[in-house]
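Example record used in the benchmark description.
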Amino acid sequence: MQQHIQFVTQVPATRIGADGKFAAQQRSVPAEVPIAISFLGIGYAVMMATPADLEDFAYGFARSERLIDAAADLSGIEIREEERGVLLGIELVPERHDRVLARVRHRVGESSCGLCGIENLEQALRPLPKLPVPARIAPTAIFRALDEIRAQQPLNAETGAVHAAALCDAQGQVLAAREDVGRHNAFDKLLGHALREEGDMGAGFVLLTARCSYELVEKAALAGVPLLVTISAPTGLAIERAKEAGLTLVALAREDSVLVMTDPHGLFDRQPNAA
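Model output (C-alpha cells):
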C-alpha cells in the first residue's frame, strides 16, 4: 500500500496554563480513517481505524467475525488507498464462502458498538467456546507486562491517543503488540499477527490498554485466550460473557494493584492478606 496516508500528523494547538499563560505549540495526532472491508467482493463493514498493520487487521477481523478458523482459510488480501480512506478486500478459500454469505444475511449496517448490523439477539450474543485451563500465572507476571507495555506503544508515546493490545507469555514478557485508535481494532491486529505467525494464544495472556467491553471478551474467547487483562473496568455483560466462556478476567490493572473479576480455574485462589 502506498503510504501517502500518514499514521501521525502535526496540528497547531494552544496551551493554556493554570497561570493564565498562553503558548502556541504543535501537537502529534494519530490518523483515523475509514477502512472499507469486503469479503468475496461483498461490502461487509466500514471501520474507523489507524491505517497500520492492515494485513494483521484483515486476519484478526475475519477470525473475530468467525469467518475463518486458521490463517490458511484466508487466500488473498488487497489493500488499496483511496482519497478518503482504504479499501481492504479479503478473499477466503471456497470452503469458507458459505460463512460469509450466511453472515451477510444477518448484517444490515455497521457501527462501532457492533450491534446495529445484527438483526436479532441470537446473532448478537452467539455461544462462545469453552476455554481450557490457563497456564499458572502469578500476579508478578501481570505487573511485569504493565511495566513493559509502555515501550511497545511508540504511536501512543507520540500522540497519547491510541490503544494497545499485547500478547504476553506466562512470565509477563510482552511478545507482540499492536496499536490503533480503536481498542477493538488493536486487538484484531494482535490476533491477526498471532494467527499469521501461528502463535500460541493460550500459553500466556493478553493485556489491553482499554476498558473491557463484551466484544473484547468475545474476541479473546474465540482466539483461545484464557486470561484477559485490561487497564480499565469491565461492563456487566463483559463479566457475564467471561463466565460463560470460562475466561479469567482481570481489570483495573495498575502498577500497584489489579482486580480479579472472574477466576473460574482458581488462578488467583488465595485468601486476602494470606501469608
